[in-house]
Design goal:
Blueprint (H helix, E strand, L loop, with lengths): L1 H9 L1 H36 L9 E4 L8 H6 L3 E3 L1 H40 L9 H17 L1
Antiparallel strand pairs: 1-2
Length: 148
């Protein structure tokens, strides 16, 4: 059973998947930082600082007026946090757009590299002698041999 497990782990697709997950986790941190630190402030500047995170509806319990979502949760109230959900959807759309642009850029670079590799292969090989030229050469060789 251990040998079977080692064979399974050693397969290329399992290792590729593991590498992909590790790189994906690191990439998630980069993209999240890009969205939180670069894109969201620009969107906030353009939209006048709109932030839906603290928008919620109290379903049950007592919450002081104007309390933040965190304060309402700490007070033990049951809240419907629709603002946090809206912000999560907006962040998802921004992250999905950034990832789309990055994948598009990587594919463009990969296509350019593939085109460069294929370019020398598409060059025509030098043409060899034609059938007529070979026959004429044979005739000449035979003619020289019979003359000597």
């Amino acid at each position: 059973m251990f040998q079977e497990f080692r064979t399974f782990i050693a397969k290329g697709n399992v290792m590729d998947m593991a590498v992909g997950i590790i790189i994906g986790a690191a990439f998630t941190a980069i993209v999240s930082s890009m969205v939180a630190d670069l894109i969201n402030p620009i969107i906030g500047l353009v939209s006048g600082g709109v932030d839906f995170t603290n928008n919620y509806a109290v379903l049950g319990g007592e919450v002081p007026a104007g309390a933040s979502l965190e304060a309402a949760r700490e007070a033990g109230a049951s809240v419907f946090a629709y603002g946090a959900f809206i912000m999560a959807v907006i962040n998802f759309l921004i992250i999905a757009w950034v990832v789309f642009l990055l994948v598009k850029m990587v594919n463009r670079i990969k296509d350019a590299a593939t085109a460069e590799e294929d370019a020398p292969a598409t060059q025509e090989a030098p043409a060899g002698p034609t059938e007529l030229e070979i026959l004429m050469e044979i005739r000449d060789v035979l003619h020289k041999q019979s003359a000597s």
